[in-house]
Amino acid sequence: MILTVTLNAALDVTYHVPTLVPGGTHRAEPSGARAGGKGVNVARVLHALGHDTLVTGFAGGDTGSAIRADLAAAGIQEALVEPSAPARRTVTIVSTKDDSATAFNEPGPRLSIEDWMWFTDRYHELASRAEVVVLSGSLPPGLPDHVYAQLLGATRTPAILDTSGPPLLEGVAARPRVVKPNADELAATGVADPVVAARRLRERGAGAVVASRGADGLLAVTGHGSWRAAAPEPLRGNPTGAGDACVAALAAGLATGSPWPAQLANAVALSAAAVACPLAGDVDLDIYRSLVPLVSVEDLDADADR
Amino acid sequence: MILTVTLNAALDVTYHVPTLVPGGTHRAEPSGARAGGKGVNVARVLHALGHDTLVTGFAGGDTGSAIRADLAAAGIQEALVEPSAPARRTVTIVSTKDDSATAFNEPGPRLSIEDWMWFTDRYHELASRAEVVVLSGSLPPGLPDHVYAQLLGATRTPAILDTSGPPLLEGVAARPRVVKPNADELAATGVADPVVAARRLRERGAGAVVASRGADGLLAVTGHGSWRAAAPEPLRGNPTGAGDACVAALAAGLATGSPWPAQLANAVALSAAAVACPLAGDVDLDIYRSLVPLVSVEDLDADADR
Taking the model in full, what pTM does it have? Predict the structure, then answer.
């Protein structure tokens, strides 16, 4: 079982408008609310691929009930803790004219110490049974930056960390097997060259660094080599779920122990299959399967070290 | 008692962002959800002025429960019917940099014939006890354009109609005591000159037409004369609740039988008192009281007819 942790799960609401006009009044068609947050999206992709997956984290209040109901309807197993404060909503406005998405993300619930104790008890039990743990996304307000470091330190199960800012930098020190920064998060480490920045994250404790760089594909710096992987051509569409699909591929690869070049080809193809879908967490499996053999994986150490 | 009817009541959610960037991702601070819809806003203003008021209309589902809870917390009496389909939400993004508001309004619930029968039974009973009935706002999807006409025809209680498009034009034929179009709604009748357009609405059946024209104040064409009323200087702020505050003043005036020039001075001052508040339905009573004696009311028939 792959356990995905979403400390700040959300009820994602999407509205479609012809064009977003700042200052205007729009008749907005809601296209249903669904369970979201990065770890939930990762679980949704893993579930679509046929992997045994389990969602945990926090989901309280009416929004939490709606999150749980949506996961149940999708057949995704969850063991979410229910704090008294309601889960956040996110509101995304999709402009149908140019397919652009404008997102408004609530910060999330204020948790109590009791909520946290309930969660850590459950987390310890679930992580010990998991093949891989995925820790994804932002933190609800009030949780300290080293929360992912503590969760990583509490389990020997291989873990992937996908977050940003101080929680990423603090988490890296707790030696996650893989971290997946995007280009901005990599640049935020203060090092301009992405390969050098990825090496620094490894020096700080990450087992491997897989950086997603949008249309430029993936950069991987690992203990077994460095690679750059890219799709034959950039896909147009909705980039919001691409990073989560990449993490899903890495989690599946970690669970099955496949070699890095194969993992990276899967991750690039699955990211592209997510870009083709309008909602984060969805992937087009036909696109995924057809793209895997077309992904180019370049060995960055080929001339330098061998 | 003044009865306000809100067929498409809403749970209004407001988010504050520094600047709205189309295509961007925003950390959005919610400032609480509250009961909304034009008739609810009118009731809120009447309640603030000390009038006995009652809210009816539809409010189902979780959003309906939240609407009822918010009205109870504000001390506003309600007799809302609860259909199975949930009440709509509206999402307003306030950009704190320039105070601009960008609104996304869901269309509303699909009502059943049974819902409608429950409502009309309740409406007949409540309208017969009311001094004034206020019918405000848009219709949920599926309700026909002559719905306000039918509600107006079913009661002899003096009524104010504040809506737009076909429901306004069809409603006018059912002889409401007052209609309150805004400048756009008046122009949509196809007549460019606002005084002529207002006269046409009277010919179609409206007892009086009070048109709100933003910073240009109010234009009133009634059976007792025509007036233009304006504040000494235009107020800057949030215009969304100004029309509802104007309707509240007209409803109060109709209930007490005050003469038109006094009603219009109150309506202009109360609209300005709403513009000064960030949320629709709120009014600054100090601004209201200080502005009433400063409103200019010009008799448009003074030279022409007398």
Answer: 0.83
Strand ranges of the sheet holding B25-27, from the earlier edge strand across to the other edge: A29-36, A10-17, A88-95, A100-105, B25-27
Residue A165 to residue A187: CA distance in whole angstroms: 11
What does DSSP assign to residue B262?
H
Catalytic residues of A: 244
Q: Which of B22, B28, B100 sits opposite A105 (nearest CB)?
A: B28
Catalytic (active-site) positions of B: 244
Fold of the domain built from segment(s) B2-7+37-87+109-299 = UDP-N-acetylmuramoyl-L-alanine:D-glutamate ligase (3.40.1190)
Using an 8 Å CB-CB cutoff, list chain A residues near B30. Answer: 89, 106
Spatial distance between the Cα atoms of A74 and B256, rounded to a whole number of angstroms: 58
Q: Roughly how many angstroms between the first and final C-alpha of chain B, as a whole number?
A: 37
- Annotate B151-206 with three-state secondary structure: HHHCCCCCEEEECCHHHHHHHHCCCCCEECCEHHHHHCCCCCCHHHHHHHHHHHCC
pLDDT recorded at residue B268: 97
Strands (DSSP E) along chain A, which ranges? 2-6, 10-17, 25-27, 29-36, 53-57, 77-78, 88-95, 100-105, 132-136, 159-162, 178-179, 208-212, 218-222, 225-230, 296-299
Best residue in B62, B102, B110, B238 for a mutation probing chain A (most A CBs within 10 Å): B102
- The DSSP secondary-structure symbol of B70 reads H
Domain boundaries along the sequence of chain A: 2-305
pLDDT at B75: 97
A102/B20 CB distance under 8 A: yes
What is the distance in angstroms between the Cα of A204 and the nearest Cα belonging to chain B?
A: 29
Per-residue pLDDT at B267: 97
B106 — contact with chain A (CB < 8 Å)? yes
Distance to chain B for A203, nearest Cα, Å: 31
% pLDDT > 70, chain A: 99
Residues 14..43 of B with a Cβ closer than 8 Å to A: which? 15, 17, 20-30
Question: What six digits make up the tokens of B96?
Answer: 């704190």
Site of tokens 């109010």: B218
- Note whether A102 contacts B15, CB cutoff 8 Å: no
Per-residue pLDDT tens digits of chain B, which is 306 residues long: 999 999 999 999 999 999 999 989 999 988 778 999 999 999 999 999 999 999 999 999 999 999 999 999 999 999 999 999 999 999 999 898 887 889 999 999 999 999 999 999 999 999 999 999 999 999 999 999 999 999 999 999 999 999 999 999 999 999 999 999 988 888 888 888 999 999 999 999 999 999 998 888 999 999 999 999 999 987 777 777 899 999 999 999 999 999 999 999 999 999 999 998 888 899 999 999 999 999 999 999 886 554
Give the class (CATH, top level) of A2-305. alpha beta
